[in-house]
Specification:
Radius of gyration: 11 Å
Number of strands: 0
Oligomer: single chain
Largest sheet: none
Structural class: mainly alpha
Strand content: under 5%
Length: about 55
């Protein structure tokens, strides 16, 4: 199970970095989240909502 957790953190970190560098307006709209700093429930909910809407 531990490797999956590490993989999840790696993917989320890459997603935040991609958004910050390539889509700064979207990154700001989602609360300027990072893996550790400014990773609140509100920002996590915004990110999950954003991803869910884009996947439909």
């Amino acid at each position: 199970m531990f490797p999956f957790v590490l993989y999840y953190f790696l993917c989320i970190s890459k997603l935040h970095t991609l958004l910050k560098n390539e889509y700064p307006e979207t990154w700001e709209m989602l609360g300027k989240g990072t893996l550790i700093k400014n990773n609140s429930l509100e920002n996590s909910f915004k990110m999950m909502t954003f991803l869910y809407k884009k996947s439909i």
